Amino acid sequence: MQREQIYLHEMVHALTKEGDPVSTRALRNRGPIVYLTDKILSEAGYDFPQQVMYSRPPTDASLPKTLPPHERPGYDWETVARAMEVENRYLDGIADAQAGAVRQTRILGEAVENRLTVKEVDAMHGELASSTQRPGEVPYFGDRFEAGFKSAVDTQGRSPRSKEVLGHIDFFYGELYRNSKLFRRLFDAFAGARAPGEGQAKWKFVLPPEGAAGDPVAARFAHGVDETARTVHLSGAPAYYLSNEGIAKIERCRELTEAMVQILTRRGGVAEDLAHRNRGAVVWLADRILQEAGYPYPKRIAYATAAQSDTVAQEQLALYETVARRAASAEDRHLDSLHPKRNRQVLACLGCRPRTHS
To answer: Residue 11 is part of which domain span?
Structure first.
């Protein structure tokens, strides 16, 4: 433990008069003092590992060898860690509702303005604000979509389920355009620049054949957009993302929205070493587009994904839930505060900053 954790732990004891778990429960529980200590330090911007259980390894390294396995610190750690994430999801909701959400200046040890998602979204705000395309100056959506994209998905012999959105991909994007102000702003600003030039092919969407379902590239959307070939490789097997409600299966509509945002904004993914603790502008924008369009999806809080066949990656992803959720919430509060109009969110105002009058 770091000094800050020790000092704060004892201060919370003094303030709350609460105790720590008794020894018989200390291997599977943290107690309120540990939770509050971790929560406060997180809000203060520290990047300390969470304490999963109250018991810690003894200073005498030989002691655990003399204990039965179920009495050794770290016994059944994975199960206890999963329980901690569920507890945090519940308790954070209560704490934030009662105490009020904190506007942080640091997140996971970084200044909030240096966070990857904040920097990318703020840059995107500037690009949209400088766009010369205005409402009323753009042609019909269907004509512009047809000019740049193939409406039929190349299923390579596969038969999409009758209700799957892939059979009506132009209709899906048309509905996004109609129902999401942010998607309209993005498409109106950038679709013309992304239209194929002379001799270039239209963008196409490809669903891999059945035999490719185990291919990690097919199972992981993060590598789905091929700029050179102007192709979106859709996932051929289920994959999972980390949401504010835990692990969730990537929805096809989310996959299509993120792909189009990536195409329109020319922004790629997040580096692998940052993907569990960051979202990036593509994920951030797609989440808000789907929210505006009325899709009842949870909020995606990290860029990393895990294939259905990779249970180890799924477990790793799940263990970042609290860290990623708290960071995403703090970033969103900061981004919402950037716009000068009170009670107006960035998602509703991207590209609509008031002009400076000379």
So the answer is: 3-102
Helices (H), the chain: 3-16, 32-43, 77-99, 116-129, 141-148, 169-179, 181-194, 216-219, 252-265, 281-292, 311-318, 321-338, 346-349
Query: Which residue, of 102, 122, 149, is where some domain finishes?
Result: 102
Lowest mean pLDDT among 80-94, 97-111, 191-205, 299-313: 191-205
Number of domains observed in the structure of the chain? 2
Asked, for residue 86, whether it belongs to a domain, the answer is yes
Cβ within 8 Å of residue 319, ≥6 positions away? 81, 82, 85
Q: Return the half-sphere exposure (C-beta side, CA atoms, 13 A cut-off) of residue 189.
A: 23
CA distance 336 to 46: 22
**Could you report the per-residue pLDDT of 321-346, keeping only the tens digit for each?**
999 999 999 999 999 888 544 334 55
pTM attached to this predicted model: 0.84
Residues 185 and 86 in one domain: no
* Per-residue model confidence (pLDDT) at position 155: 72
- Dump pLDDT digits (tens) for 247-262: 999 999 999 999 999 9
| Amino acid letter, 283 | V
